[in-house]
Amino acid sequence: AVTRTFSIIKPDATRRNLTGAVTKMLEEAGLRVVASKRIHMTREQAEGFYAVHKERPFFGELVDFMISEPVVVQVLEGEDAVQKNRDVMGATNPADAAEGTIRKTHALSIGENSVHGSDSDENAAIEIRHFFNDDEIVG
Ligand code: CMP
């Protein structure tokens, strides 16, 4: 089925002017950008978005990183979008990511790993709502 997922191009990628390069890889994987905006997340936004990780030892570092510079938040649409996006992103740790994936190609470390993607349809819906109104998504 054609579904949607939520993506973030993270500060390590925007800083290196890789917004287009990353988006091209998403598009070539069969995903369509149906919403996109460049934002500088507030601490409150980042803490809310990553609330599920708040007990993790890297939470503070993760939030600091995500608010360090602008990010690009996107809604991606395609056949089985969550899985398609996860496949093209590659493993969380770029050292474990497969050849040809975004993280293998561009990520710097497990924290500075260039992209975020939703891990389920349910979380995709929650994450999309965190950053986009319905009228900002044009399919
Ligand atoms: P993301 O998909 O955005 O969701 C949670 C993020 O936590 C994950 O990508 C990683 O970038 C980050 N993360 C996971 N493990 C670590 C770690 N050990 N140190 C720093 N960041 C981490």
Automatic annotation (TrEMBL):
Reactions that this protein is recorded to catalyse: a ribonucleoside 5'-diphosphate + ATP = a ribonucleoside 5'-triphosphate + ADP; a 2'-deoxyribonucleoside 5'-diphosphate + ATP = a 2'-deoxyribonucleoside 5'-triphosphate + ADP
Keyword Cytoplasm: yes
Active site, per annotation: H116 (pros-phosphohistidine intermediate)
Repeat found in the keyword field: no
EC number: 2.7.4.6
Example GO molecular function: ATP binding
Chief place where the protein resides: cytoplasm
UniProtKB keywords: ATP-binding, Cytoplasm, Kinase, Magnesium, Metal-binding, Nucleotide metabolism, Nucleotide-binding, Phosphoprotein, Transferase
Classification via InterPro entries: NDK-like_dom (IPR034907), NDK-like_dom_sf (IPR036850), Nucleoside_diP_kinase (IPR001564)
Domain of life the protein comes from: Bacteria
CDD domains (UniProt xref): NDPk_I
Cofactors named for this entry: Mg(2+)
Location in or out of the cell: Cytoplasm
SUPFAM superfamilies, A to Z: Nucleoside diphosphate kinase, NDK
Domain (Nucleoside diphosphate kinase-like): residue spans on this chain: 2-139
Binding site for ATP: K10, F58, R86, T92, R103, N113
A cellular component term, taken from the record's GO annotations: cytoplasm
GO biological process, one term: UTP biosynthetic process
Gene3D superfamilies per UniProt: Nucleoside diphosphate kinase-like domain
Family of the protein in this entry: Belongs to the NDK family.
Biological role stated in the UniProt entry: Major role in the synthesis of nucleoside triphosphates other than ATP. The ATP gamma phosphate is transferred to the NDP beta phosphate via a ping-pong mechanism, using a phosphorylated active-site intermediate.
HAMAP family, per database record: NDP_kinase
Subunit structure: Homotetramer.
Protein name as annotated: Nucleoside diphosphate kinase
Native species: Sphingomonas rhizophila
Gene from which the chain derives: ndk
